[in-house]
Amino acid sequence: MRQLCYDDPVPTHSKRGKFITFEGLDGSGKSTQLEKLAGALRAEGSTVVVTREPGGTPLAEKIRGILLDSATRSLAPMAELTLMFAARAQHIREVIEPALEAGKLVLCDRFTDSTEAYQGGGRELGSKIVLELHRIVCGDLQPDVTILMDSDVAASVARARRRNQASESAENKSSDENRFERESRAFFTRVRDSYLAIARREPRRVALVDARGTIAETHERVMQAVRKKLKG
Ligand SMILES: Nc1ncnc2c1ncn2[C@@H]1O[C@H](COP(=O)(O)OP(=O)(O)OP(=O)(O)O)[C@@H](O)[C@H]1O
Ligand SMILES: [Mg+2]
């Protein structure tokens, strides 16, 4: 049997990919901007994987169904928190890690910052438990760049509600992802404050992008922020 030589080709991709996440309130424009960024990066020749949380794998999408459906009632905050991480564990193993190992660019719509903002801040479970669970479940996996889409609470939630109403009538109510959008203004204010605290705590990773402009203006800001962070 032939011995492996040191200069045999390494089976894994030599250069690890980059992990870019989009964060922000419901309706702040994350999915819109993520798709536009993916298009721009693909046009430059990058191999891009687009995914989302909660979800991104068949099992995690089932958990998403439970978490976002407004028919889900009286879900204990701790159950909500741990279901988010259950979906994330599956997503990391099946999608995120393999893509990063293969040297791809992974664009993910929401990640652990959402859990810190919504369950830690919105549900008032606090950041500590979220960060602790992240360490246990996700190890040291951190995004290389996080785009935090900053916008006003009322305007964002109104946009998300309009979009959901439009898609419900178009899809004949086949999916309902309204559970969080029914929360109060005070809830979303806590979510936004938590996001801003994360941006202050981790300025190297998190780029705060003003999301109040047009789609084209915001896309320009996102492109600039991504280039700057990836260069850094
Ligand atoms: N800059 C913008 N100006 C006006 N409308 C926008 C802008 N960006 C997105 N929209 C519209 O607002 C709605 C919400 O945008 P989008 O779905 O991208 O937000 P999101 O942050 O992904 O929301 P969610 O967290 O609920 O998934 C969509 O109908 C989208 O077309
Ligand atoms: Mg979205």
Key traits:
alpha/beta, binds adenosine-5'-triphosphate, Rossmann fold, disordered N terminus, 12% strand, 54% helix, 8 helices, binds magnesium ion
Descriptive notes:
The protein is α/β, with parallel strands linked by helices. It has a single domain, classed as P-loop containing nucleotide triphosphate hydrolases (Rossmann fold). The protein contains 8 helices and 5 strands; from the N terminus they run E-H-E-H-H-E-H-H-E-H-H-E-H. The protein has helices spanning 30-43, 58-68, 77-101, 112-122, 127-138, 153-170, 185-201, 215-231; strands at residues 18-24, 48-52, 105-109, 145-150, 206-210. It has a 5-stranded parallel beta sheet, with helices on both faces. The longest helix has 25 residues, at 77-101. It is globular, with a radius of gyration of 18 Å. It starts with 17 loop residues before the first strand and ends with a helix. Residues 1-6 have low confidence and may be disordered. Bound molecules: adenosine-5'-triphosphate (ATP) and magnesium ion (MG). Magnesium ion (MG) is lined by residues 30-31, 109. Residues 24, 26-32, 159-160, 163, 214-215, 218 line the site of adenosine-5'-triphosphate.
